[in-house]
Amino acid sequence: MRYDPNVELPRHGYHRDGLTEGEIAEQAAAAGPLAASVRELIDAVVRTEIAPAELDDVRHQVEALTERLRAQQFDGSYGIRFGEAGDLRNWGNAVVGLKNAIAPPLHVHRDGTRVWADVELGAAYEGPAGLAHGGVSALLLDQMLGEAAAAARAPGMTGTLTLRYRAGTPLGTPLRLEAYAERTGSIKAIARGRLTTRESEPTLCVEAEGIFILPRWARGADLDAN
Amino acid sequence: MRYDPNVELPRHGYHRDGLTEGEIAEQAAAAGPLAASVRELIDAVVRTEIAPAELDDVRHQVEALTERLRAQQFDGSYGIRFGEAGDLRNWGNAVVGLKNAIAPPLHVHRDGTRVWADVELGAAYEGPAGLAHGGVSALLLDQMLGEAAAAARAPGMTGTLTLRYRAGTPLGTPLRLEAYAERTGSIKAIARGRLTTRESEPTLCVEAEGIFILPRWARGADLDAN
User: Fold this and answer.
1) Cross-strand partners of A161
2) What is the pLDDT of residues B116-148, one digit of tens each?
3) B20 close contact with A: CB closer than 8 A
4) Which of A13, A210, B7, B188 could bond B130 through an S-S bridge, CB–CB 3.0 to 4.6 Å?
């Protein structure tokens, strides 16, 4: 998504920081791998079996690293930022955010108005034993349906989301997420998607349908979904 | 939830590890604060503005900690474990898991068959600028509805989940989640819930309805939801 740099930003949480492409690339090159290392740490904390006293020691070191990162930080959340060239950065996003260790993160690809992403979920996404949490599938599919609405030039916030669980979503297995906008209007889009295993004969795990609505403040704000 | 220690465990991912209450308390006392410290680290990684070279240095230290935790770890996911007394531990769960830094975690309270939890979501749960990701609300509500079904002695896996988004869910604001089972049968329960702000005049942010189904393998397995 791009934002016309000549139009006033519509809302709190949207920042134009004027970073050059070089500055953005430099930030991404350090922040992306750091978030990835914390994803590994999250997994290791779930799965570790080292002794309690050692866990305490690791915790003290984690606290020291947090303090170091917090020596210089912004208030609140990352929001949506636009650099010099107008490119959108949502690096704090819980599903696709480059700086967010909670996000798997999804790398969403566009093929016309169809969007897709491949992912494998580890131990930190568990719900039922050995399976992804039903709410994690909902989280990923909400993002995918929103991306499909945006790809069809009808971006919006989730109005309704309906999920049908057809089979358990296995952890530690290649998965595919797909979505497309079925209908779009000037302020509303209906999107559909699904989560399957990535095999020669895929298992359909979850189906999703959602209505996405352009918020009032953004109507006429000339947001370009591409 | 408890599991009768005399009944055979139904499924891969369920373990009876025979830990005593003292051993469980000792593990919780170290693993809980460690996961909490990693939650702070996740937040700090999103919000930090320290220089890229420093981020690289922090990353190397995170990698060393991960390696230390992985020196002794189990394969796969945490699953569902039962100690000597039969108490269930789902410490890897993405919403309520004690060892899971992705989980806020929710502390779910029961008041008869009604369940509720208070939470405040930080920068790592962002979707739209300054607001919780719609899928994060779905994740939390899926767990709450499942807990409500279990509280009504009709535990199950999510069959369908429908969410209606009424207002944006603010980050950095006290929130309340509530749910109850509207109808229960021997293998199916219908649960409803909502997410509101926690104010004298709460804002209704999200409503949810779900059908929870006891999996085939668990029917007759004498799982006691309490």
Assistant:
1) A210, B163
2) 999 999 999 999 999 999 999 999 999 999 999
3) no
4) A13
Chain B contact for A69, CB < 8 A?
A: yes
CB of B119 within 8 Å of a chain A CB? The answer is: no
Instruction: Give the ipTM of the model, two decimals please.
Output: 0.93
Residues in chain A closer than 8 A to B122 (CB atoms):
77
Q: What is the pTM of this model?
A: 0.93
Looking at CA atoms only, how far is residue A153 from chain B in angstroms? 17
Contacts with B64 (C-beta within 8 Å, 6 or more apart), sequence order: none
How, if at all, do strands B80-82 and B14-16 pair? parallel
Are the CB atoms for A156 and A149 separated by under 8 Å? yes
Quote the percentage of chain A above a pLDDT of 70. 92
Among the partner-chain residues A40, A56, A129, the one whose CB lies closest to the CB of B66 is A40
CA distance linking residue B179 with residue B149, whole number of Å: 9
Q: How far apart are CA A23 and CA A83, in angstroms?
A: 9
